[in-house]
Design goal:
685 residues, alpha/beta, Dimethylsulfoxide Reductase, domain 2, Barwin-like endoglucanases, 3 domains, seven-stranded mixed sheet, six-stranded mixed barrel, 18% strand, binds ligand MGD, binds iron/sulfur cluster, binds molybdenum atom
Length: 685
């Protein structure tokens, strides 16, 4: 008799965006065949976006890395795990001895689990003796972490996704929510149906423009000016929340003095937003009992990113829209687990739970927990600084897990120089990426479908990732690879892990905000939002309840407007901004493996306004040359009113017309985030 096929459904978390949808992976006789949404999940509610539906395809793609590779005479040769890991261990030891621990850098990954990020940062610190560990949050929400920690005392989204449905005014800026956080976008539309007013502030026309009650279109890089302008109106007209300001904040007088300068007339000159629109938007935002601010990369990816974030915080506090349901400042974290990668200390300045490496008590605690005396006491360096240090010969070796800087970092010609200058580069990925091509050793990681762990969504909700199939080929879970390597380097004593749960048990012990988030509870409850300090604690849905800010009082910063690092001139008369499209994710390694997603958007394009196109004799779909001070690319033109005159937009997903050949690596001085959202460019037919 023929055997009955074995069918399984495994509940897990989507590996794309930070919304944190959960769904079932469908497995037939050990093979992954699709996904089914989960009706009872509070975010998914039985729905998924198109990336979610197709998120299993890259897992089974023929191009997956299945064996370790070692470069010999410029060519990759397949190797055994023993051979590859022994070589990595030997080279890391050699470089550390020859040049010191800080000549090495480690990139962790917001694609991998909390457990894997914890193990990676522990490896860098306890085994390799350096705080040079960072990840893509640096390119993303580093300014959020810095800005909100300074104003509120905690650098995370203040409220949760489901709450947004009950806000009565929603101010969205620098977030293309429907395309980039679709299931959050759905909640915004649900709020609209319940009567909420939507204010969109975005230079481009995006899908939300069709639903917004007001759409203010600022010149890119002028966010501090228009936010100060809104506060000018709100304070000037007495629409601010005096009681909240008096009881729960400090620094108001300085703020008031500064924003007095930002009259609607002045703001119109800086930002191009008509003054009547600014006044109306300010009154509307101040009128809600529950007004919520939603922002993302349009706010953070600037040399003034931290200032922009502080400005959003000022606006929410001035109107008392903090510490209550459906209010707050809500940075939408991008990657499936970028919140978790930060929480677990894959940052050069903190251990897990934001415990600072420069704080002696915190350091002592980890020295004891990790049985490692003399943990490094100084802050490490960040992603872009690491690439610069590599080009300057100060960093000699880099270990990259699950990042693709050869497409995602600014000024990739310079990144290439840095990576090629290294004595040793290890890349641990699921595909042979543009970055992996440059490596000396490539290690095949297993995807989310092939391992256990947890991801933390944008609203701080920790959820399980569950193994549905065996790792493809000889690929191994990232935590297993690093654990094995630590063992080979003689630190098996502190890397005793046999399962992802073993790692979470340790995280619970050393990380106060995750102390009560155990696998047992997650299996019962489905999700838990941090801070969750004990096993009998229900977790924290929204932060700073009743005006009790994590830092004590909320702190206003009087932030003057500063121009972006590079402005248009005669040679480069256009402002270029970059970002994303709905159907692709980042460097395309995963989404470009899907036929359905490629069919929607097969390659890159530059959005250019009809007036700018006509002046250059460019028609829709023509191949054009876009150049900046960093380089030049050829790319199809999309002639469209989506961008105003003088502004062009390029999505950064496509290696054949890579936006990051062009972008400016200038950094925010505090958060060290690069200015992906503004530089000067020229387009030629
Ligand atoms: N489909 C898809 N979804 C994703 C991702 C993906 O690659 N693809 N990536 C994920 C990640 S990691 C992230 S961080 C998020 C990012 O999500 P978003 O931040 O929503 O995406 P972006 O396209 O980078 O930019 C957002 C908006 O900023 C606007 N903008 C440009 N310049 C300025 C400016 O100077 N000021 C303001 N206020 N706005 C400006 C753009 O017009 C755009 O509408 O998306 C996540 N979700
Ligand atoms: N011009 C421009 N550039 C930008 C941005 C922009 O708006 N404009 N946005 C920036 C932002 S917000 C971000 S977050 C960054 C993202 O930058 P990156 O993180 O460098 O980009 P990804 O393509 O997400 O890289 C993730 C890598 O992890 C691999 N991977 C997936 N799952 C696993 C796994 O389980 N294990 C391992 N080992 N590997 C895995 C994927 O194949 C991929 O190569 O890009 C930044 N770059
Ligand atoms: S909204 Fe985000 S988490 Fe949900 S299915 Fe789409 S990509 Fe996945
Ligand atoms: Mo991001």
């Amino acid at each position: 008799m023929e055997a009955i096929p074995e069918y399984n459904c495994v509940l897990t978390t989507c590996p794309y965006c930070g919304c944190g949808c959960q769904y079932y992976l469908q497995v037939l006789d050990g093979e992954l065949i699709g996904v089914t949404p989960c009706k009872t999940h509070p975010i998914s509610q039985g729905k998924l976006c198109i990336k979610g539906w197709n998120s299993w395809q890259y897992v089974v793609d023929q191009g997956r890395l299945t064996k370790p590779l070692i470069k010999k005479d410029g060519k990759f040769v397949e190797a055994s795990w023993d051979e590859a890991l022994d070589l990595v261990a030997k080279k890391l030891k050699e470089l550390k001895e020859k040049y010191g621990p800080d000549a090495l850098g480690y990139l962790s990954s917001a694609k991998t689990t909390n457990e894997e990020n914890y193990v990676m940062m522990k490896f860098a610190r306890a085994v390799m003796g350096t705080n040079n560990v960072d990840h893509c949050a640096r390119l993303c929400h580093a300014s959020t972490v810095a800005g909100l920690a300074a104003t509120f005392g905690s650098g995370a989204m203040t409220n949760s996704i489901p709450e947004i449905e009950y806000a009565n005014v929603i101010l969205i800026t620098g977030s293309n929510t429907i395309e980039q956080h679709p299931l959050m976008g759905k909640r915004i539309l649900a709020a609209k149906e319940k009567g909420a007013k939507i204010i969109l502030v975005d230079p481009r026309a995006i899908q939300l423009s069709n639903f917004a009650d007001m759409h203010l279109r600022q010149r890119p890089g002028t966010d501090v000016a228009w936010i100060n302008g809104m506060m000018n109106v709100i304070i000037g007209e007495g629409l601010y929340d005096k009681e909240f300001v008096e009881n729960f904040t400090e620094g108001f007088e300085e703020l008031k003095k500064l924003v007095a300068e930002y009259t609607p007339e002045k703001v119109e000159k800086i930002s191009g937003i008509p003054k009547e629109q600014l006044v109306e938007a300010a009154r509307l935002y101040a009128s809600g009992d529950a007004s919520s601010i939603v922002y993302s990369m349009g706010i953070t990816q600037h040399t003034t990113g931290t200032d922009n974030v502080k400005s959003c915080a000022n606006l929410a506090m001035v109107t008392g829209n903090m510490g209550k349901p459906s209010t707050g400042v809500n940075p939408l974290r991008g990657q499936n687990n970028v919140q978790g990668a930060c929480d677990l200390g894959a940052l050069p300045v903190v251990y897990s739970g934001y415990q600072k490496v420069i704080d002696e008590a915190a350091r002592k605690k980890f020295e004891e927990a990790w049985n490692t005396p003399n943990l490094p006491p100084e802050n490490g360096i960040t992603v872009v600084e690491m690439m610069n240090a590599a080009a300057d010969g100060k960093i000699k070796g880099i270990y990259i897990m699950g990042e693709n800087p050869m497409l995602s970092n600014p000024d990739i010609n310079h990144v290439r120089k840095g990576l090629e200058n290294l004595e040793f580069l290890v890349v641990q990925d699921i595909f042979l990426t543009e970055t992996a091509e440059l490596a000396d050793v490539v290690l095949p990681g297993a995807t989310y479908a092939e391992k256990d762990g947890t991801f933390t969504a944008t609203d701080r909700q920790v959820q399980r990732v569950r193994k549905a199939i065996e790792p493809i080929g000889e690929s191994r879970a990232d935590w297993e690879i690093i654990t094995d390597l630590a063992n080979r380097m003689g630190r098996g004593d502190i890397f005793p892990y046999k399962s992802a749960k073993d790692i979470m048990d340790e995280i619970n012990r050393v990380t106060p905000s995750y102390a009560g988030i155990t696998y047992d509870r997650l299996d019962k409850l489905g999700r838990l939002p941090w801070p969750c300090p004990a096993e009998d604690h229900p977790g924290t849905v929204y932060l700073h309840k009743d005006g009790k800010f994590t830092r004590g009082k909320g702190l206003f910063f009087a932030v003057p407007f500063l121009e972006p690092a590079e402005l248009p001139d005669d040679d480069y008369p256009l402002i270029m901004t970059t970002g994303r499209v709905m159907f692709h994710f980042h460097t395309g390694t995963m989404t470009r493996k899907s036929r359905e997603l490629n069919r929607e958007v097969p390659t890159g394009f530059v959005e250019i306004n009809p007036a700018d196109a006509e002046a250059r004799k460019i028609s829709d779909k023509d191949m054009v040359k876009v150049s900046t001070r960093r380089g030049e690319i050829e790319i199809p033109a999309m002639v469209t009113e989506r961008v105003p005159e003088g502004i062009i937009f390029i999505p950064f997903h496509f290696k054949e017309c890579a936006a990051n050949v062009l972008t400016n690596p200038a950094l925010d001085p505090v958060a060290k985030i690069p200015e992906f959202k503004v530089c000067a460019a020229q387009v030629k037919a």
